[in-house]
Design goal:
Blueprint (H helix, E strand, L loop, with lengths): L1 E6 L2 E4 L4 E9 L6 E7 L6 E6 L6 E3 L7 E6 L4 E6 L8 E8 L12 E2 L3 E6 L1
Parallel strand pairs: 2-11
Antiparallel strand pairs: 1-3, 3-8, 4-5, 4-9, 5-6, 7-8, 9-10, 9-11
Length: about 120
């Protein structure tokens, strides 16, 4: 089992940047594919981006492609999400998630979740 804790959320103006972190503890972090999801009020949880266990493969939702970058440091058991050119529609609670196989884009495919961190982008 793995425990996940997100940090780095906050309030930022449109066009600004934030960097989220997801710290993992428990079983070997490097054996898990990881992902970021987000959920805005009244909306379903949506896929943002995912990364393979090695970091060699990544995948992005069209809505964030070119603006967000996912990365991981297995030595530090930490995953990151660099968010640039933020828009008001990026406002949501951001969750990190882990699964012990190849990464996927559906939240039902992930076994472990963090508690979430709020990102608010003002216009």
């Amino acid at each position: 089992q793995v425990q996940l804790v997100e940090s780095g959320g906050g309030l930022v103006q449109a066009g600004g940047s934030l960097r989220l972190s997801c710290a993992a503890s428990g079983r070997t972090f490097s054996s898990y594919a990881m992902a970021w999801f987000r959920q805005a009020p009244g909306k379903e949880r949506e896929f943002v981006t995912a990364i393979s266990w090695s970091g060699g493969s990544t995948y992005y939702a069209d809505s964030v492609k070119g603006r967000f970058t996912i990365s991981r440091n297995n030595a530090k058991s930490t995953m990151y999400l660099q968010m640039n050119s933020l828009k008001p529609e990026d406002t949501a609670v951001y969750y990190c998630a882990a699964r012990s196989t190849l990464y996927g884009v559906s939240y039902q495919e992930y076994d472990y979740w963090g508690q979430g961190t709020q990102v608010t982008v003002s216009s």
